[in-house]
Structure formats: structure tokens, C-alpha cells
Amino acid sequence: MKKIIITVLLFLLLSPVMGQLRHVKGIGNFGVTYGINKSGSLFGAGYSHYFQPNWIWNVNALYESGKVESTQFNNLIINGGVDYTCFRVGDFLYFNIGLSVFTGFEKLTSDESTKEVKNFSFGPAGNANVELYLNSRFLFQIKAEQYYSPLSDLGKWFPVYSLSLKYCIF
After folding, report:
1. What is the Cα Rg of the chain in Å?
2. What is the 3-state secondary structure (H, E, C) of 92-107?
3. Is the Cβ–Cβ distance between 123 and 99 less than 8 Å?
4. Is pLDDT larger for residue 78 or for residue 27?
5. Which ranges constitute the DSSP H helices of 34-110?
6. CA nearest 153: which of 113, 105, 111?
7. pLDDT class of 136 with cuts at 50, 70, 90
8. Which residues of 101-130 are buried (b: 16+ CB within 10 A; e: fewer)?
9. 114/46 Cα distance (integer angstroms)
């Protein structure tokens, strides 16, 4: 683990510094995400694209797993939406809010039964996030999201908190 952290830090520090481009029309970024919810964790990958300096569209694929009482759950989610930059501090810290829609599948396995239940899921989601630029190529994003899933057997509302590391492409 220590080697991975050192390698990532060296990569971040030695990445080429190409001006201070941040929220500029046409710039995109790829990212990896790790998050938690009240009953489990998730990880995923995604792409974001700035189509205006304050407007960002994004798409993410997420895998979530955990346990609620005696039921194990595994979800596969595709999420797409738009974020708006409300304000910023300098050229390194941006505060965004967003709306999205998601679709996916939910697999439930109960401890009391060997029967698996698979459900289709979809719904809206809202988020607030903060982007912290480490340099011109890398940023951390801290996000709080609230999903509404009307077809879920586990509940309708799902808060998720996540941290993403993103790499900007010009």
C-alpha cells in the first residue's frame, strides 16, 4: 500500500504543469470514485466534460454493496447528470450543485432465505460537491448525493458520500 501511495504522489507532483486551466469549455476529465453509504460502500469510474465554464455534464458507472439488517445488496448503477458551479475560491477550489438520473440493477440476498431478488432501479438524484485542484491535471472531488429509488425493496432514499480522484484531459 505504501508503494502505491508513493507512486501516486510522485505521479501527481511530476505531472506536466500546463497553465492553470480549470473550468474551461471543452475540457474533460476521467475519474475513479470510492464512497460510503449508511449500509455499505461503492466504487466506480466516470467522465465529466465542461460544456460551459460553470456547467459540467458527467456520466458514472458505480458498483455498490453492503448489508441492511439481514439482507445483502449489490447494485450496479449508471448515473448521468449536470452540475453547476455556484462559486469558487481562486482557481483551485470549486463548489458545485447538480441533478442527475440513474438506472441500474439491484440484487438482494436474504440471510433467512437462499432466494435472490433482482430489481430494475431508476430515479433522480441531487448532489453537492467540492472540487479541489491539486495541479493543472489532477483534482479531488468530495461529493454528497441523495438518490431516490422508487422501485427499491430496501428503501426509497439513499444518501451517498464519495471521494474521487480525477485526471483532466485537454
Report:
1. 18
2. CEEEEEEEEEEEEEEE
3. no
4. 78
5. none
6. 105
7. confident
8. ebebebebeeeeeeeeeebebebebebebe
9. 34
- Only one residue has cell 450543485, namely 97
Q: Could you say which DSSP state residue 69 is in?
A: T
Could you tell me which residues come within 8 angstroms of residue 17 by beta carbon, excluding any fewer than 6 positions away?
135, 136, 137
Q: In which element (H, E) is residue 2 found?
A: helix 2-14
Instruction: Please name the helix (run of DSSP H) or strand (run of DSSP E) that holds residue 110, with its range, or none.
Output: strand 93-110
pLDDT at position 68, please?
86
- Mean pLDDT across 141-165: 91
pLDDT (mean) for 114-138? 90
Give me the residues paired with residue 118 across strands. 107
Q: What is the model's pTM? A: 0.81
Query: How deeply is 166 buried, as exposed, middle or buried, from its count of CB atoms within 10 A (0-12, 13-18, 19+)?
Result: buried
Q: How far apart are CA 52 and CA 23, in angstroms?
A: 8
Q: For residue 79, what is its C-alpha cell?
A: 448515473
